[in-house]
User: Fold Acyl-coenzyme A thioesterase 13 from Rhynchospora breviuscula.
Amino acid sequence: MDPDRVKRSLEGEGKAGFSSKLPDHFFDRFILHGLRIDAVEHGRVLCSFSVPPRLSSSSGGYIHGGVIASLADVVGAAVFYSAGILRSGVSLEISVSFVDVASIGDEIDVEGRLLRAGKSVGVTSIDFVNKKTRKTIAQARHTKYLAASSRL
Assistant:
């Protein structure tokens, strides 16, 4: 393994870089394609999706953990919007506890809830549950900086 080659590949140096060959917003479309929004309430977002092969890990045919983390980021941000918090900054922390697996073809329910929205920081909780077995796949927390409006 050549660490410099791996670094150049990920950083997209020149035309040979991995990321330079991807279309704009590739990862958003890759992760979000097939996600259904089932309900939106104040401070609560319900979604569902079927695990497609493209989102599985290379071994075992289970959903890749990075997919869960990415969805926690996106759904957590949507929860803030559902609560009328339109000023959003960067994610401060995303933590995920993986407690079971989801296989290709499994239907997954995703529920995001607002836990707290203060003056500058907000926290959401996102649960991933197998629709058929009702077993929890993962639980996530998403903490975001809520950008303060400018007083200039």
Confidence is low (pLDDT under 50) at residues 12-19. The chain is about 20% helix and 35% strand. The longest strand covers residues 107-117. The beta strands are 36-41, 44-50, 91-98, 107-117, 121-130, 136-145.
